[in-house]
Amino acid sequence: MSWNDLTPHTQAIGRVIARVPLLGLWVAWGLTPVSADEGDFYRDVQAALVKSCILCHGPSKQESGYRVDLLDVLLRGGESGQPAVIPGNPEASYLWQRIVSQDPDQKMPPRGSGLDASERARLRTWIASGAELPQRAQPSNPRTDHWAFNRIAQPAVPAVIPFQGQLNPVDAFIDRSLAASGLMRSVEASRRQLIRRVYLVTLGLPPEPGQVAAFVDDRRPDAYARMIDGVLASPRYGERWAQHWLDCVRYAETTGYEVNGPNGKIYPYRDYLINALNEDRAYDRMILEQIAGDQFGMDAATGFLVAGPHDTNRSPDPRLTAMQYQDGLDEIIKSTSAVFLGITLGCARCHDHKYDPFAQADYYAMQAVFAGTSYGSRRQQGAENERMAKSAKLLKPQLATLRQQLATLRERYGLKPPVDFHAYEETFAPVVTAAVQLRIHAANDQGIVELDDVEVWTTPGPAGESTNVAHRDLGARAVSSPTAKANQGKTADLLLDGTRQLFLFFRSVDKENVWITIYFDRPYLVDRIVIKPRGAHVPVDYRIDVAVGDQWREVVDSRGRMLHPQDMRPANRVQLTGVARQATARLVATNAETRRIEAEYNRLRDGPQIFAGRFAPPQQTHLMVRGDPLVKGPPVAPAAPALFAGGELDFATPEAERRLHLARVIASPANPLTARVMVNRVWQYIFGAGIVDTPSDFGINGGRPSHPVLLDWLAIRFMEEQWSIKRLQRRLLSSATFRQASFSRREAAQIDAGCRLLWRFPPRRLSAEAIRDSLLLVSGRLNRRMGGPSFSFFEQATSVFEKKQPRGTFGPEGWRRMIYGEKLRLEYVGVFGVFDCPDASQMAPKRTVSTSAGQALSLLNSVFVARQAESLGDIARRQAAGLREQVTVAARRALCRPLHREEMSVLLEVAEQQGLVQVCRILLNLNEFVFVQ
Amino acid sequence: MSIRDHLLCRRNFLAHTGSGLGAIALAQLLRPQAAGGDGSVVFDPADPFAPRRAHARGVAENVIVVFCAGAVSHIDFWEYKPDLVRFHGKPLPGNERLISFQGENGTLQRPLWTFRPRGECGKMVSDIVPHLGGCVDDICFLHSVHTKSSTHGPGENLMSTGFNREGYPGIGAWVSYALGTENQDLPAFVAIEDPRGTPQSGPNNWTNGFLPAAFQGSAFSTTRPVEHLQPPRGTSPEANSSVLRALNRLNERHRQAFRGDSDLSARISSYELAARMQLSVPEVMGVNAEPAHIQKLYGADSKNRVKADFAANCILARRLVERGTRFVQLFNGAYASGGRLNWDTHNSMPALVPGHAEILDQPVAGLLRDLKQRGLLDKTLVVCCTEFGRMPMFQLGNDGRDHNPEGFTVWFAGGGVRGGMSYGATDAFGYKAEQQPLSIHDVHATVLHLLGIDHERLTYYHNGLQRRLTDVHGHVVHDVIA
Question: Is the pLDDT higher at A828 or at B169?
Fold first, then answer.
């Protein structure tokens, strides 16, 4: 596929009829060089202009006919007629004059700060030195413009002299860039440090003293490799790495937004990830499963699609509803594009992407892929489902028998059909009346009564015409027994509005003796009443009267009707016309039994329900103009972003085909981003920072790779090795780069303070989860049970809206790893939330790391940590007799090493004066305890 | 020796010996300036709250946002609409069948309380807020604010973070990220929840979003103390200081081996701040120590428990800014509750609103007067906001007003704004912002401007963009600045 065959543009244009083609931007980027040796015109000059000017002088708008993205126009100038750039003479160049002007009417950009001093300096230098354009200035495939959109090439491993033993190719790359900066790798870390580092990085838990001793004493030449193999085979591994993935997708068990109620059973997705990672499932396979797992019997995997927030607050407001639909799909588009591809396609919702080659049409093409996807619970296929289906089948005859018994009884007693929970009708002899009254003795659940509408119909005329006279437009009024003072109107008037509305209906306060009187504007001849309940709290025992003169006269009552299956009144509250007490009791009992069996049958028939992607035939997708949910543009067919040249699908493509197609485009070895993005994530979680430090943004505005060739080499290896994440990790963990000491070296820090070149293993603070899990491991309380429903960090609240109160203490259930704690969106977990634990409202491909007094207070003073300190003290007392030995045991558990003499004397003094538990409290607060070094 | 003495001694010692912590002290003297080339703020992770210079000289130094959760009715409180009286009982012209958040609306409903001219400026204000009515000469009303969402959660998000979706940093987080704070012993950004509970969007109002977690608001109030402030039960003060001393010694020893790692120093500093907070937070929370006439001014002596507690929160807000806390978000109203615990009165407005107004009125008026008499109002911007307004009609079949995102009132006081002023207006019935409409971004841009911050230059990189509080919008409302 080449630029001439199929450009992103022609694809996009083909998809969108009558769309303004925004050709310039990408072509312009095609003019920029990729070689750093050429002075990087793009980075030094054009990037600054694009950032500051592109909105008004770019593909979308060309004010004064000028644009900065097309190089010839950039030089030539716009409608002013003045040349924008006069090579060699910045002061005479109109572009420069406008940028540095002090005149508010002249200065560019008119608002905002514009170019900063260094950008101006670079621009000026460029003009002054002749405004040279890059050499390779001809239009090319936009992929070649930006490194990450290039196909990955097979790079050669640099030849460098092995340093400290055998050479891992990773080290060759690292050493080359270190050498180029006059740096050297650090010496290898001690075995104690190494095992602790490997455990914390790979498992999120420290090793236990026995494991440390075994490794330190292992004299075999491959001791380190064996230790790594053991760690990668641990079930704890999947729990650690699944958490990273959950961060990226902002997984939570509540919906977010205003209601933020429970999602339903979404934890099977978390368990899917843990299992898949533990089994080292091929990553390309995991992509297919997470986007289209329902096609492979992996329903839980599609939890990926719906792991983001969604608004469940329903309203009749059409704009709000349309916005909620768009927002729901937006979250799916953002997850899919950012997590797998490292692109910020979400930016193209309202307009073409400002920096990257993604048209607004690309955004809506992906929306079309997911147009049939919605949030909610669905059946989970698999063994459990089949078991339940089988049981349902077995139960069916019993249910049929019971229903038959009820039908027979109804016939025997001559009862009319039961009320219908949607709408039911009572007819009676025509009568002239100006008012009707409903007297309701009981609802089906003996609770309050809820009704949407009551209609009273005139006796049909000669042509069959009939009118509902119980309507406010005809002047009818209603009064009733007390109604609920709910958040929305719940009065009797709402029975007469002729519509079913979400919030506007009648709700009684009383549970019995409810009455509703409807007055017409004048008397009518009527013979029919339609009652429209809301589907719950339905009147089942009532009578209807009409006004005759100043008397109420009964026309019909409900006691001639058969019991509704959902009628839950006990036998002594049920009266049926012409049915004896005993017979009534039998009828009620049979009805109750039928109800019970039916509920069980329905449960089995529906199968196991989990919260995962729900899929239905998609509605037509349109480009929404400016992202406005109510302004439809042209229809858009499903496709992956045109950059990936996957071709577009037919408008009629079935729902699942769309997702499978997208998943295949993403998981293709030809995709320039997928492997790079994943390799970079793994690198980041091992070394603390990615080779690209914007892990979900590999676009033009994202970070530049510190080791681009290494990244590509790893990506190629990753794909060659069947996308095995564990093999990639083994390669990184066994590198000398990983194994070097973490001490800072002044001369190296002066050259590369941020340690991007990796002249040492960069130390870092543990994540919230690793701190909590480590505390529990060290205190001997860690419950290693895997999977299943989550434990809660919060006390039970009485309302979903109420503030969640963090729990202070936990039992064994809450001593499971933190990944098994219920993740509530928008809530910070007590004690550990302050350790930069994301709240799952935004994707967190990289956690911020901050240090605050709140963290110090949590570890020093919380009940949770106090309990772990006590428990650690108990272990030390059990394992050793003397105080000094007890301190040694506790320290070994917390720090994986013996204490130095000075440390021992400090701690021993505390132990003697304040007790062993205070020593444990110190150990669990040490910098060393919460840092991986 | 107390903890504080100990820390002070040690700090002096280290500063003089020029060792690691001395270097930190030096870094504090060389305060980093706001804004790198891309608009990101450069700050020392070991000292994230060091005061930083703004882009320009601001008038305001501190902000108190009074957030009336649940949506206050602008037409019953702040913006006088005589046509609502004249056309009472008629449908809203041009929108006879308007479907709003909860569905159909009834007819126009006159203001539920009488408006009368107040103050020297003669501003028409409702009788439902008599105390605040007495403050109008210090208040600048923005009557033409409109928002993007008609549901509470997204509405609160937008008002507090500039985005109706979740996970964007709150304005208090942005401001403390930009400016640091003046008192290193207290949090830079405090969220004071209503005594009745948490607002609808809860912590998203004071989240750090994608900013470093240090800039997250600390949520505490007179009824909800700071968590984990005191040592675990059963730990004597001596045991505690002995633990802190030993901890410090071991951490210091460890740091020597990792010289040059600022994260380790930052963590040592955080334990020092924690120790100082154990003294400073109870001190600032000592609202009861205020003299009786001050308690009375705010209504903290009220027999109405909620009002007294909210008044105490208002006093706490004043004590915080007095001591240098940069940004206080003070909530009036809790979560969705059928209008019982917050302003969301879809029904029974005549009965429910006076209760809410009583809780708001005197305490906030007391806050304004107290700040003024202490000379703090000049440099403290008080913002009274809510997520949206309410409809000029009652809802169909009900005696409450539905949500109205099309137009509502936010007001400013102090901090360099013009008092006794009204800016912009909704239409004749109070439905849509009509004259000089203001987006939430405009309100935010103006707040930042008053603090000396250029809203277009305060940025932070996140997932592909240099993010701003004001997204890509926002104009400073220069007309309201004194």
Answer: B169
CB B448 within 8 A of CB B169: no
Q: Which residues on chain A are in Cβ contact (under 8 Å) with B228?
A: 831, 854, 857-858, 860-862
Q: Residues 252 to 311 of B: which have CB under 8 A from any A CB?
A: 253-255, 257-261, 263-264, 266-271, 273-274, 277
Contacts with A627 from chain B: Cβ below 8 Å: none
CB A258 to CB B154 under 8 A?
A: yes
The three-point CA angle A278-A280-A285 to 5° equals 125
Q: Which residues of chain A are within 8 Å of residue B235 when distances are taken between CB atoms?
A: 866, 918
Confidence band of B348 (pLDDT split at 50, 70, 90): confident
Q: What is the 3-state secondary structure (H, E, C) of A108-149?
A: CCCCCCCCCHHHHHHHHHHHHCCCCCCCCCCCCCHHHHCHHH
pLDDT band at B399 (very low <50, low <70, confident <90, very high): confident
Query: Cβ separation of B267 and A856 shorter than 8 Å?
Result: yes
A696 CA to chain B: closest CA distance, Å? 6
Strand A377-379 with A609-611, pairing: antiparallel
Instruction: Count up the domains in chain A and report the number.
Output: 3
Task: Calculate mean pLDDT across residues B124-145.
Answer: 98
The pTM of the full predicted model, rounded to 2 decimals, is: 0.80
**pLDDT category of residue A130 using cuts at 50, 70 and 90:** confident
Confidence of residue B1 (pLDDT cuts 50, 70, 90): very low
Domain ranges of chain B: 42-225+288-480
Please tell me the distance from the alpha carbon of residue A575 to that of residue A564, in angstroms, as a whole number. 13
**What pLDDT, on the 0 to 100 scale, is given for residue A39?**
42
User: Last residue of a domain, which of A514, A544, A560?
Assistant: A560
Pick A928's closest partner by Cβ from B99, B214, B254.
Answer: B254
Structural domain of residue A918, as residue ranges?
Answer: 863-932
Buried b / exposed e along B232-242 (16+ C-beta atoms within 10 A): beebeeebbbb
- Could you say which of B203, B260, B277 has the minimum Cβ distance to residue A744? B260
Residues 462-501 of chain A whose Cβ lies under 8 A from any Cβ of chain B: 485-489, 491, 493-494, 497, 501
Rounded to whole angstroms, the Cα distance separating A923 from B246 reads: 10
Is A521 within the bounds of a domain?
yes
CA distances from A383 to A167, A300, A411, A654 (A): 48, 13, 42, 27
| Cis previous bond, B225, omega within 30 | no
| Closest CB to A857 among B154, B229, B255 | B229
pLDDT in tens, A808-858: 889 999 999 999 999 998 888 888 988 988 888 889 998 878 788 889 999
C-alpha span between B28 and B45 (Å, rounded): 11
Which CATH number covers residue A490?
Answer: 2.60.120
B183–A contact, CB cutoff 8 A:
no
Q: Per the structure block, which two tokens stand in for A522?
A: 């004048």
Single residue among A85, A108, A137 that ends a domain in this structure: A137
| Chain A interface includes B203 (CB < 8 A) | yes
Task: Mark which residues 300-319 of A lie under 8 Å from B by CB.
Answer: 309, 311, 313, 315-318
> Do residues B119 and B134 touch, judged by C-beta distance below 8 A?
yes
User: Which value does ipTM take for this structure?
Assistant: 0.77
Classify residue A928: in a domain, yes or no.
yes
- Residues ≥6 apart with Cβ < 8 Å to B312: B222, B223, B287, B298, B300
Q: Does a structural domain hold residue A763?
A: no
* Residue A84 and residue A75 in contact, taking contact as beta carbons nearer than 8 Å: yes
Inside any domain, residue A254: no
* Class (C level, CATH) for B42-225+288-480: alpha beta
User: CB-based contacts of A449: which residues, under 8 Å, 6+ apart?
Assistant: A440, A443, A506, A507, A508, A514, A537, A538, A539
Residue of B nearest to A859 (CA): B228
